Amino acid sequence: MRFVHIAVTFITLVILCLGAAGLYAVHYVAQPSPLNEDKLVEVPAGWGMNRLAYHLEQEGVIENALPFRLLARINGQSDNLRSGEFLIKAQSSLLEMLAEFTDGISHQRQVTFPEGATSYEIVQILNANENFTGDAVYDIPAEGSLLPETYNFTKVETRAQVLARMQAAQTELVERLWAERSADLPFKTKQEALALASIIEKETGIGGERRRISGVFVNRLNIGMPLQTDPTVIYALTMGKHQNDGKGPLGRRLLRKDLNIDSPYNTYRFKGLPPTPIANAGAAAIEAALHPEDHNYLYFVADGTGGHVFSKTLDEHNNNAAKWRKIRKAQGN
Fold first, then answer.
1. Could you give the domains of the chain?
2. Which tens digit of pLDDT belongs to each residue from 220-242?
3. Which pTM was predicted?
4. Alpha-carbon torsion angle 316, 321, 322, 323, nearest 10
């Protein structure tokens, strides 16, 4: 009997110890970590849970790698590690961290490409961003083939993959908008529509003016009048490789002699649209090209406030241009 009593007592103590250990383990994996601020943790492809655990310990995200490894094994998640970049919140528990690395979504970053940027400029933005993996891009995509906007991406995404997304987005957008275009437009192809949209994009950044400016160019195309738009001459001079020193795409003012350049992009010398877009137009400019405002304006010039004043006759336009020259002179430009 005495032996039985001792055995029962021993077993009871073991059960109590195991229970206490279990309760402590549950408490330990659920308690806040020593991490005192949010931290981005990158998990390269090919890493295992053991390597991640030691990395977290070295980075001060967790105190000890062993409990994290054991937790992953007990929960059956040792083989569920995802690659990518994950945002670990301050004071996350081991349970919360494990869930983030096995079930969470990779941290999203953002990159913005301005509407009207040339393909060369977009590639420059991509190559300057250090948050992409993979090689720099050297092949410049076709002008007008990219949709400029803000894109989300993960750090494991390459620059080439982002360009492919931009091209797919532009193709899908143009297909949709082309099917809804206005009737009797003076151009027949999507490429021509993108060429007009790129000119509109370069001529104004004011949303309310886009369709009106589109209408001016459509009116000129309809009567065989040269478009005579400065941005096409700038493109003829630079082929999209603009200067980025705060002095405009040429690094200087466009000069009268520049209007004589012998280039199919020079819409002062050659009638019709340029052979390709001169930039990558955004959705609003493409919509404006496909839905021009119906009016009788043939001219427009800057008004000194960032917008433009429109006119129907050359005399009106010349008067408006003289006013703009006075404004520009007063501004010291």
1. 32-107 (3.30.1490.480), 109-164 (no CATH), 186-330 (no CATH)
2. 999 999 999 999 999 999 999 98
3. 0.80
4. 90
